[in-house]
From TrEMBL:
Superkingdom of origin: Bacteria
Sorted UniProt keywords: Cell membrane, Membrane, Transmembrane, Transmembrane helix
Protein name in UniProt: Cytochrome B561
Record field: transmembrane: 12-35, 41-62, 100-121, 141-161
Any one annotated GO CC term: plasma membrane
One function term, GO molecular function aspect: heme binding
Subcellular location, principal: membrane
Amino acid sequence: MTSTHRPEPVRVWDLFVRVFHWSLVTCILLNYFVVDDGEDLHQWLGYAAAALVVSRIVWGFVGTRYARFSDFFPTYRRIRDHLSRLRCGQADGHVGHNPLGALMMLALMALVLSLGLTGFLQTTDAFWGDELMQETHEWLGSALIASAGLHAVAAIVMGRLERVNLVRAMVTGVKVMR
């Protein structure tokens, strides 16, 4: 008699995390690809993105289980073990973020906050028209888009490796663990 393993749905990402994620994606894509630099809308979208990240940081300490940094903080050991399992072709099966995903998430949030800071500084007397600040802001924007692209590709690849639709999970909040 053969037993069939049924996929196990697990509620992973709460409504706050999902609204944060897709709102941040929207702010970033609009600011980089649609809205012209220097427009009021560009500034407000940047401030909204920074506020979203600050809110997510707070939620990382007080939120639901899989939203908390303590659940997925990418320590050296967690990253090393995760990479070791990947090299051996073993899926980790992390319910929440895997260590590399967590590292990317923290890097993306740092980039957004850095963009918010450099954008704001350009509105001050000290840095108004400062070429280095403008170039830094532009470089950070390009780094954010490149990192976000890598994040999206990695989510698709890891989803295939682990046989979990991670994009759907970020929409519905439910991961179907196989």
